[in-house]
Amino acid sequence: MTQTFSSTGRDTFVGTPRSRIDGPAKVTGLAKYAGEFAAPGLAYGTVVSSSIAKGRIAAIDSSAAEAVPGVLKVITHENRPRTAWRDKNFQDAVAPPGSPFRALYDDLIVYSGQPVALVVAEDFETARYAASLVRISYERQEPVTDLKAVRGDAYDPPMKREGIKPPPAPWGDADQAFGSAPIRVQGGYSMANEHHNPMEPHATTVVVEEDGTYTVYDKIQGVSNSHQYLVNVFGLKPDQVRVLNPYLGGGFGSGLRPQYQAFLAMLAAQELKRSVRVTLTRDQMWSFTYRGEALQTIALGAGPDGRLAALRHDAVQGTSTFEDYQEVIVNWSGVLYRCDNVALTYRVAKLDTATPGDMRAPGAVTGVFAIETAMDELAYATGLDPIELRLRNYAESDATAQGKPFGSKELKSCFTQGAERFGWAKRDPEPRSMRDGRELVGWGVATGIWESMMMQSSAIATLTPDGRLTVGNSTGDIGTGTYTILTQIAADTLGLPMDAVTTKLGDTRLPEAPVAGGSWTAASSGTAVMKACRNVGEQVFKLARAMENSPLANVDVDRAVFADGRISVAGDPGRSVSLVEVLQAARIDKVEAVEQAGPDKDFNQKYEAYTHSAIFAEVKVDEELGQVRVTRVVSAIAAGKVLNPKTARSQILGGVVMGIGSALEEESMLDHRIGRFMNHNLGEYHVPVNADIYDIDVIFVDEEDKANPLGVKGLGEIGIVGAAAAITNAVFHATGKRVRDLPITIDKLL
Ligand code: MOS
């Protein structure tokens, strides 16, 4: 922990490996998820999804469904209660520009799988059966879902997405420099559409309380976002709705925005004046957000020494017809490498699909795959070792931000320590030169990069006379370990054991915090919790000094040391008093504080903040079967201070596993004739399973950063970035085949 009250400071729990404190609840089933909360008289809703991608609903016949005993209501756009869509263009906290999708608003169909009816019944089975009886006829129009077909219609999004930097203006003359470069690499790169598929599908339970207020359990990465959405869309007062989600079964970005099941559950609860639960099925997880495929081209020009003379990276990505989703994709290429002639462009094209959305390291996963594969091609074209090539073009400042320096950047240490651990020096660069029995062996490397961000966040801390401390805010722990790190921070700040601290999250009655996303939660909520605890500590110190015969009389606050449940005097440990004694002597039932934390404007004016990684992959390829196994990965991470090496390592492991998925397996396939994702199940949409995962070794290099008082940069996303490139580069090294279109399925290697 950084210094709190005294010049000595303490670091008892922060920086040490700790198991997730929410782990036992999760593995014993005590943890409840949004679709598991019960309520008296709970009714169940099943969503009917559109079978066409574009057109209009001509007629809905719900009579057969309504005739089923136990069915309470079939809600469609025709009989939709008028309680909804008070603010019909309300944009949630992380919405891209445009007009958000509105369920059951009218007869228009804008994507396949769009919700068109909600069947509510006394029990789940009845609702599901009755939903199968709803007959809908459509006036069908031809959908356009093939990005390649509309590539030429791509446009610069007219409105910028908040928080997302558009591509910087070009500098130098990339095309001219490319034309005259002695060594050139040029290619097209693509990645498939991917869907998040957290273990917990989306669900919402709306409980109608006796006083007419609503308690909503929603699958969301930050309850404040759902709260604002429901309040505005239904024209409610903020205190009429409380949203909770104590636990999430994963999110990966699919839970950043409120989804239609939350809207439908509230709509039905209002209409029926009953508590309602709506749970999406696994196949309905393909009916909203996804990582949209992108078509990219890269042109690199270099001298024989490998120094970049030209860098051009162009990307086109799909968006829906109603929102301009943007994740930019190309900017990191300009951040990673020093080059005098750079052009970066990003455009979007409209498709008849749901709006794509953020999926773990949105944009970076896609763009860094392309640039880091192209850099490997350039390494071969120049005859340089891929690490040496990267070091020769190492950026010491951020060219996309007018050359601002990085707050910290220990990427060189990542290369050095990662290469050492991996044994990179033993690599024979010649493709097809390494074998293990009948398998070809390949070693590849890539860089990873992700923004280090901090968001405005608040938190509460409450100390009670029993010596217990409770801290919290409204953000969600999406499985990343937020409960645990906040507990560590709080315990260290006030010198308490971890088990004297209770951390509460995911409740709109707690101080407001943003969605858990963007890898910003440790910095944002962590700093807010630390500040709230410090405030409590200062209050307790004042009470202690005011005690009769106080051992701390006349002591300045900066000499107070909080440790072992006591306040003592630095350099004079004999003088101390316990926190419990102080509160009891003061005869108060609690000491409490709410504090705000936000980005450091002075720091951000001077510096740019990124996390970095060097990722090394070994693949073994069976050429006769086309099978690729990723047998070894070393991921060396520079992300500032690591609060908890155990949960931090787990984040990187999960990121690497997801990266193996995008490199080799994940692909949501559209049938363009009907505009529908066809493999909408986990039998046909492949994700890595345990048998696909071998050794993954994580290194955290030392890095000191001052963007926030904790010195953290965020770890939730960096683990996936670059993983796919390291694997494609290893596959090239093994086989001599350069695959530029992900995933590398068997057919691409035979
Ligand atoms: Mo993340 S894609 O910001 O949940």
From TrEMBL:
Residues 28-142 form the Aldehyde oxidase/xanthine dehydrogenase a/b hammerhead domain. It comes from the Bacteria. SUPFAM superfamilies: CO dehydrogenase molybdoprotein N-domain-like, Molybdenum cofactor-binding domain. InterPro entries: Ald_Oxase/Xan_DH_a/b, Ald_Oxase/Xan_DH_a/b_sf, Ald_Oxase/xanthine_DH-like, AldOxase/xan_DH_MoCoBD1, AldOxase/xan_DH_MoCoBD2, AldOxase/xan_DH_Mopterin-bd_sf. Pfam families: Ald_Xan_dh_C (PF01315), MoCoBD_1 (PF02738), MoCoBD_2 (PF20256). PANTHER family: DEHYDROGENASE, XANTHINE DEHYDROGENASE. This is Xanthine dehydrogenase family protein molybdopterin-binding subunit.
